[in-house]
Design brief:
It is a single chain. The protein is of the alpha/beta class. The chain has one domain: Alpha/Beta hydrolase fold, catalytic domain (Rossmann fold, 3-Layer(aba) Sandwich), CATH 3.40.50. The chain has 13 helices and 11 strands. Strand 8, helix 9 and strand 9 form a beta-alpha-beta unit.
């Protein structure tokens, strides 16, 4: 699903404010987390899980505007945060794992991570190996997408062992969220099982929709993957692991934004998901249409909730672009349909996520 590469780069719980009440200044920092070897790096050059962490900062922290792109002419606003500020004192906090879309990066969810941190959560987003905006997408990163859930589990391990944040995390209050293929990743860690043959079968069926045509940019990677399945026994063996469950029992609630591709999951595994799931999407999603995506997922997972934003497209959950970003990244990612306000959708999405995680991670 090359379409997501594009240019890239309520009840109160201890230590939390209500969703409509900013309680903390936000700190931000980065880490290169090194899982124990052997680890499937999916052909990536960087053998580390590069993460961005947003967290409640001490009251004297000095927040600064954060941006993606060149400093002089930034492309995307990612909110305000205090780089490497001291964490706020207080009780242990909930940890939310954030997974970016196909070919995206941790920074694409900065608006969401910073918003969670302002209300008492620790949020950590990672660049998935072989499938992020800092390196070329690899065949393994394109194909072995279920291993993204393994990345999230490795981040939990590393964050709990971290010298700064380990003692601040409440291990009983861990959730996951993601956009697009990141939403797919969050579903996988909740117990959704991937059958990689299901999406091609869907796209050959009368039900095929824009999900299938939005993948047209990935033709070369798809052909290379098919070739590797024929000629590379190791790749074929790793591909065969798709049918496993990558459920991590430490994750207790999942929030999925415009998740896709939903047809890749087995119906039986979706029906067996037992943890709370909240889904948000745009009614005019041109990449993962609601009928085969968010709506289908909401019907398949017991007790899931679904919110559709009228007229909103797939990239409404991307950061807010500057004028330069609209020119460089392009209309498809940065522009929304008339009558749709990206910042308002972000604010409502964040309110829903805060209410959801506050209620379900206690």
């Amino acid at each position: 699903m090359r379409f997501l590469a594009l240019w890239l780069i309520l009840l109160a719980a201890p230590g939390l404010a209500r969703a409509d009440d900013t309680a903390f200044k936000v700190g931000v920092t980065t880490r290169d987390l090194i899982p124990p070897e052997p680890y499937d790096w999916r052909g990536a050059k960087l053998h580390a899980l590069r993460v961005t962490i947003w967290y409640p900062a001490a009251a004297d922290a000095r927040e600064q505007p954060q941006w993606t792109g060149p400093r002089i002419v930034p492309f995307v606003s990612t909110g305000s945060a205090a780089p490497d500020a001291a964490p706020a004192a207080g009780p242990r906090r909930g940890l939310i794992l954030l997974s970016h879309g196909f070919g995206g990066s941790a920074s694409t969810l900065a608006w969401f991570g910073a918003g969670l941190a302002a209300h008492g959560f620790i949020a950590v987003a990672l660049n998935h190996p072989g499938n992020n905006g800092s390196e070329p997408t690899t065949v393994e990163g394109y194909t072995l997408t279920w291993l993204r859930a393994v990345d999230l589990s490795a981040v939990i391990d590393a964050m709990r062992a971290d010298r700064t944040f380990g003692d601040q995390i409440d291990p009983a209050r861990i959730g996951a969220a993601g956009h697009s293929y990141g939403g797919n990743t969050a579903i996988a860690i909740a117990g959704g099982i991937t059958d990689p043959e299901r999406t091609p079968a869907f796209c050959r069926s009368p039900a095929a929709d824009a999900l299938c045509t939005s993948q047209s940019g990935a033709t070369e990677l798809r052909q290379k993957s098919l070739s590797r399945l024929t000629t590379d026994p190791d790749f074929r063996q790793r591909y065969g692991l798709a049918g496993r469950s990558y459920r991590d029992e430490r994750v207790r609630a999942v929030f999925a934004m415009a998740p896709g591709p939903v047809p890749s999951f087995t119906p039986e595994s979706l029906g067996a998901i037992s943890i709370p799931l909240a889904i948000v999407a745009g009614s005019a999603d041109e990449v993962t249409p609601p009928a085969s995506g968010a709506e289908a997922l909401g019907k398949a997972v017991p007790h899931a909730t679904l919110k559709l934003f009228p007229g909103a497209g797939h990239f409404i959950f991307f950061g807010t672009c500057t004028l330069a970003g609209r020119l460089v990244i392009g209309r498809a990612v940065c522009r929304d349909p008339d009558g749709t306000d990206r910042d308002e959708v972000h604010a409502e999405t964040l309110r829903l996520a805060l209410d959801f995680f506050t209620a379900n991670l206690r």
